[in-house]
Amino acid sequence: MPAPFPSIFAAAAAEPATQPISVQTALLLILGVGLLLTVKSLAALHRRVDALNAVRTRNPRTTAAATGAPSPEILAVITAAVFESIDADHRIVSITSPRQDNPSWSQEGRRQVFAGRKVR
After folding, report:
1. How many structural domains does the chain have?
2. Which of 14, 30, 53, 118: CA 20 to 30 A from 64?
């Protein structure tokens, strides 16, 4: 049976495959494979993010709306704590949660920094 590609086999026999490749060729191959792996990884990451976004849009989180007043159970716990700690006839007038609009913890560090400086 004759060889299907005699010119390819003749060229392969004329130049042995044991010759080293040039540095430029090796770098080009390494960069090409690296680029291919990077693009493949980014494509896989993009597919995962799209899948997560699709799940989020299909199943949005539902949370209960916050009410202005604490629940009766919380009021009972606060009343019991006040009664046990004070041991006197006291009455709870109002219960309010602290405001979260003013982040005082972040302002404290700034106050300490400026308190350590002297104005000349």
Report:
1. 1
2. 53
Distance CA 56, CA 32 (A): 36
**87-96: string of b/e by CB count within 10 Å (b at 16+)?**
eeeeeeeeee
Calpha distance 45→38 (Å, rounded):
11
Three-state DSSP at 39 gives: helix
pTM: 0.36
Least Cα distance to 12 among 24, 25, 2, 3 occurs for: 3
Specify the residue for token string 């010759």. 19
> What is the span of the domain harbouring residue 37?
11-58
Instruction: Convert the pLDDT of each residue in 88-117 to its tens digit.
Output: 677 777 777 666 566 677 777 777 787 877
User: Closest Cα to residue 91, out of 101, 74, 78?
Assistant: 78
